[in-house]
User: Fold Low molecular weight protein antigen 6 PH domain-containing protein from Dactylosporangium matsuzakiense.
Amino acid sequence: MTPLLTADVFGWTVRPVRWRRARALLVVVAAIAVLSLHVAFDPPVECSDAVPCGPDWLNAVLFGLVAALPVVAFVSLPVTAWLAAGFFTADAIWQVAHPGLASPAWLTGVDAGLTVLAFVTARLAPPGLGTAAEMWAATTSHRRPPKPGHFPRYGLGWRLLAVPLLLGACVIAVLALVEQSGADDRLAAAERVTAEVTGHPDEYTLEVRLPGRASPVRITVGAADEHPVGAHVAVLVADDELYQLVSEPYDTSGWLSLAVLGAGLAAGCLARARERSVAARALFATEQPATEVYVWALGGRVAVYATDARPGEPALVEFFALSRHGSDDIRPGILFGVPAQRHWCAVAVDGELLVPRGPARSGRFAPAYGGPAPDPDLDDPGTVPDAARLPLRPEEILALRPEDVAADPETVHTHRHNRFSGYAVVLASSWPFLIVLWRLLPVLPYWGAVAVTAPVTAIACLSGWRLLLRPRVAWNGAGLSVVGSIGARLLVWSDVHAVRADRHGAVTIETDHHGAGLVVAARGEHALLPRFLSGDERTGLQLSGALRLAAERAAVRARERVRDVVSLPPAPVAPPAPALLYLTWAAETLLYALLLAGLFDQ
Assistant:
């Protein structure tokens, strides 16, 4: 059976969760845009005594479907596609039934486009793990996992959530229909009178004076401004104190929209449960990559390590098993499946099959691979070393830039954030604060608005300069100079305890055993900004790898007593901000002041 090596899984493109949700976000944005177009361009509905606005159940279904689209998109894209198709069909039927209120032809085409987009998005396969993973899957051994004696009911939580949603939707729909039927019967026998509008307690309530009554009564309407004070309106008066305008009869059809929304969510939950069940059963129904691994299984928690894992290295993946395993040490086992996030895996260890509760997650949450420490720098030789201090693997060195791998200790390497993306962040970072101020503050005179926007944009520019725009790191074979987010230092390599990088691109250069050090920003592995905005900037892993490689080579030269004539790189002097940054601050301040001064509202 093929052993699973660290090099086998190196270079796999594991997208974070936000990339999975990008498809759902696309459908959400499209649904909101379509709804906004309908609000802006649909003919207005006018209510009159001759043509009253009675209950419109099909219109309520339309509102429920379009309200369900943005919510269900994050639960199940296939169900969202069918909801979009239902919205388009119901809208077409409604327009045929109400030709005088039909939407423009182009807007109906937009509805059809939303349906097509939803189906295409639902059918798009999620991004793969890359060519390295495909080559591994093609060359590794395959075996069918042992079938568990009792196959669990996957997706039970989603089903339990769907049941109250579906029951609630049914109850709301039934109550709305019953209430509307009763109100219709009462209004059929009501008396029609003419009343005078005497006040507007709020925007949805009229206060009217009925003939023969000393005190006024209140009636709920769609818009109180359509009935000015002093106007006369026709009112239906029932014996049980039910008052309704003739043009706006009693209407409970809006509750049906809430019922449709609940039913759509229930359908999405059931589809999500079925999706989990199908994925879990597929793991045991077909042949899967079968590899030898090391396994740490304690209770229901299972961590999987490569067969060449070194003490201190993180696990490849981790999942939770249905059965509990009593061992608390690392043992050899057999992995069935692909060791990547959101993939289903099972492990056989000590003759016991550990069936997963759900897909695997990142191994960074699991304990590091244990064992005796080969690192002579550690005080306690029985402790587990830090993965950030382990020598780089050959595949990690190959992933670095050629100039960073060059062995000449005299060469000075530098790193700085891409300027284009840095200025983009500076320009965008102040917008949320200015939008909040625009909503909270009254309209200001222009120069008063300048006084408000100037410090906000100054903070954005200063933060962007300190974190993104100024040069950050320079290093060679002797040491490195660092301009961190806070502080700057000139260090020899023996002063560097460890170099760490997270998946967001932040690189921490630790200078003691307690984790203190300097933080430098680099490009994340899956940055939100497009690649063309980041240019040829190093990722956080590339920068940390280059620094670790230089530190390793310096340690080798020190152990071999090689006398270097290499001088330290230039001292970390923070340069003054460029004129372009000051121009950006001035332009932002004057432009955003127009927003607070209300000039865009004119």
